[in-house]
Amino acid sequence: MRLTVLGAVVAATAVALLGPGGAEGVKWSKCQVAAQLLRNGFQRKDLPTWVCIAMGESSGNTRAINRHNTDGSVDYGLFQINNRYWCSEKGRGKGCNISCKSLLDDNIADDSKCARHIAAKQGLDAWVAYKQKCKGKNLSQYNVKPC
């Protein structure tokens, strides 16, 4: 009986951590997001804004998927990059010349490159989280030291 209860707890915990397709979701803290962004070409002065965007879009989850867009499109990864314009479901392609699946791992080099490309093309307003949670707001809670 004890093993059954323990097994149920382990199974429930595993289900809670499982993301889409059974992939374990990795959820980074603000300081971990900041560290990853620095490693992937973001400037220190821009970290509060980008940490705000990443936390607002995916809560720091590198394997987040949003299938609830009204236009039927899907958002992927830390920055919730959309498959309508930026990534392709069928191999590399679209605006960032990237596979959507490649946005669902813990290596955010390609996610970062694509996010900077989107920002250069459309500005930060391309992210709903930026407009709702970051733009014109006090970002002191996102001004964290990388850990």
From TrEMBL:
Entry keyword annotation includes Signal: yes
Alphabetized GO MF terms: lysozyme activity
Record EC number: 3.2.1.17
Organism, as annotated: Gryllus longicercus
InterPro entries hit by this protein: Glyco_hydro_22, Glyco_hydro_22_CS, Glyco_hydro_22_lys, Lysozyme-like_dom_sf
Record-stated family: Belongs to the glycosyl hydrolase 22 family.
PROSITE patterns: GLYCOSYL_HYDROL_F22_1 (PS00128), GLYCOSYL_HYDROL_F22_2 (PS51348)
Name recorded for this polypeptide: lysozyme
GO annotation, biological process: defense response to bacterium; killing of cells of another organism
Keywords linked to the UniProt accession: Antimicrobial, Bacteriolytic enzyme, Disulfide bond, Glycosidase, Hydrolase, Signal
Lineage: Eukaryota, Metazoa, Ecdysozoa, Arthropoda, Hexapoda
Residue ranges of domain Glycosyl hydrolases family 22 (GH22) in the record: 96-114
Reactions performed catalytically: Hydrolysis of (1->4)-beta-linkages between N-acetylmuramic acid and N-acetyl-D-glucosamine residues in a peptidoglycan and between N-acetyl-D-glucosamine residues in chitodextrins
Signal sequence, start to end: 1-25
UniProt enzyme class: hydrolase
Classification via Gene3D superfamilies: 1.10.530.10
